Amino acid sequence: MNPTALEYFVRIAQSGSISRTAIEAGIEQSTMTRHIARLEADLKVRLFHRSGRGVVLTDAGSLLLTRARKVAEALDETRKLAVTLADEGPSQLVIAAQPTIAQRSFAAVARALRACFPDTRLHMVEALGHQIMNSLADGRIDVALLYVPNSQASMVDMDVLLHEPLYLILPPDFPPVAPTTPVAQVFDQPLILPGTPHGLRGLVESLALNCNRHVRVEVECDGSNAIVKNLVRAGVGCAVLPLATVAEEVALGQLQASRLAEPEVTREIAIATARNRPPVIGQWDILQTLRQAILGQAAQGNWPGATEAAKPSGPDISAA
């Protein structure tokens, strides 16, 4: 038995008119009639006497009305509760981001979410891309901010926000570099790369394959960006990173940065949610709050090198 049909039954009984109730509900009269016909078929009784002046309850309809009113009232209260919960947000929200994204966005994101959802307890996590994807799938993370992965994208819904070019990062005592470096020349340098085959390591190896070059891995490092930067600054090797990761050190002359070119290499930054998990309370508002906070960081110049992604004409669907 369809609860919506019971609600329509109560409203028709109160108004005495199927057509008037359909207009008030914003649906076609034929749709309203089908709901009532299906309800009568389910119950195997006639609920209304129909005439040119409207409808009146049968004896069976009068008996049903008392119970149906309780169902309609319960549904209305449930809807009101859902609206209230959505306004308040979830009791806890777990947000994860990859290191550079966390560095550039977490402060702004936390401020924005605290302002909109003061009763929600925020849990913010920094992790690598493949770790975030796994945690999204098993429900340990509610929302992720990440570089769009080459694989596993079918597991999540993504809203791409920013484009971010990659740079070759060199020690300060290396000969001065040009503003751009052809991709093929990256592989002349000893590189510091993650040990995991996912994300950045996979991207660099793919670029080498396209150039028919070999990757010279000097050190594998799965530590934080701070460790990678220290290794480069000490002259151990070079790295491939976004400018936002090293902007302060480059400005101080502690590192050098040269944007990859021929071809330009960029990554997309997105908000991601799992397709196999139910949405958190107020998810739409939460995602919009995140979107505005992150785009605001880029617009204000707080995310060096990043530019807003063009909005697709279709629905949002779319690290490291």
Automatic annotation (TrEMBL):
<dbReference type="Pfam" id="PF03466">
    <property type="entry name" value="LysR_substrate"/>
</dbReference>
<keyword id="KW-0804">Transcription</keyword>
<dbReference type="Pfam" id="PF00126">
    <property type="entry name" value="HTH_1"/>
</dbReference>
<keyword id="KW-0238">DNA-binding</keyword>
<comment type="similarity">
    <text>Belongs to the LysR transcriptional regulatory family.</text>
</comment>
<dbReference type="InterPro" id="IPR000847">
    <property type="entry name" value="LysR_HTH_N"/>
</dbReference>
<protein>
    <submittedName>
        <fullName>LysR family transcriptional regulator</fullName>
    </submittedName>
</protein>
<feature type="domain" description="HTH lysR-type">
    <location>
        <begin position="1"/>
        <end position="58"/>
    </location>
</feature>
<keyword id="KW-0805">Transcription regulation</keyword>
<dbReference type="InterPro" id="IPR005119">
    <property type="entry name" value="LysR_subst-bd"/>
</dbReference>
